[in-house]
């Protein structure tokens, strides 16, 4: 009898050990995400209070159908307000996923305690709800807003050398420097909507200009260890006081370079030698450019024109394009990114007859310029 019991238990254990549990696979969620909401803890009913929300979507910013600011105001009324990402009235860059709305007395209606939350909806109807934020609404207007008088930063950074690069921002506030809560520098690649690096700037005498408490806030960044690659960048600095007032952003464009940079070279020009001013048809100018650091290193190609009497044309300089875009008549650039830059010109019947000098030049992202290449076009009747 004991032997039978032993066998039964062993068989049961074998059955249990032989079972496997299949993991439950959840469907992938492609929901929009409310990454961050900026709103002051204190607002004043007679001011415009800017609320900013940073929205991300796995399918890209274009998939965001709408962002709403839900306000429960001090008198208990709820408003659902459409936030904007259009690059105007408080929004810095259009279509970058950062939405804003300016709350005024029309929405607050009275002073007291209010709450806000942000809701984002994508093109498929998926939505995300942000946390509730409480704001104390006070009567009147807030104190003065801080301002950035000057932003100082390098025009270029060499990323294959290790050294520190200072950034300095001169800040003032009518309520005194003691009311400044923080000064923040954000670094953006010009091809990205969100900053890849954020730095606090301080007025402590060690990381700024060497003098504490003089309104010049600063920091130092490492040229080769801060995430910079070969690209164009923008640094954006804002100052925030103790009441949450934000200054207008101060910005500075810069670019990165590396040792061994070579200037671009114009290797060919395609342009007519003679044009009739009565023909009236567009003419496509083509310039072939090379760069030993790669075509992606070319910042721009431009040309200047000079009238038969030697006077520069009023529209100088003219930009050429390598974007693969043609107009409705088929005039324009053939292939994007192939190093051939184009411009479409039209000679009108009122143009002065004679020889017109066209002066072409390419420039790379480190600021190095090619030799100028000239071409003369003679305009005839």
Question: What does this 3D model show about the protein?
Answer:
The chain is mainly β. It folds into 3 domains: 33-138, Immunoglobulins (Immunoglobulin-like, Sandwich), CATH 2.60.40.10; 147-257, Immunoglobulins (Immunoglobulin-like, Sandwich), CATH 2.60.40; 265-380, Immunoglobulin-like, CATH 2.60.40. Helix content is 6%, strand content 44%. The protein has 2 helices and 25 strands. Strands 2, 4, 5, 7, 8 and 9 form a 6-stranded mixed beta sheet that branches. The protein has a 5-stranded mixed beta sheet with strand order 11-17-16-13-14, with no helix packed on it. Strands 19-25-24-21-22 form a 5-stranded mixed beta sheet, with no helix packed on it. A hairpin with a 5-residue loop joins β4 (64-72) and β5 (78-82). The N and C termini lie far apart (120 Å).
Task: Describe how the helices and strands are arranged.
Layout: H1 2-18, E1 33-38, E2 42-44, E3 49-56, E4 64-72, E5 78-82, E6 98-103, H2 105-108, E7 112-122, E8 127-129, E9 133-138, E10 147-152, E11 156-158, E12 164-172, E13 180-189, E14 197-201, E15 216-222, E16 232-241, E17 250-257, E18 265-270, E19 274-276, E20 283-290, E21 298-306, E22 318-319, E23 340-345, E24 354-364, E25 373-380
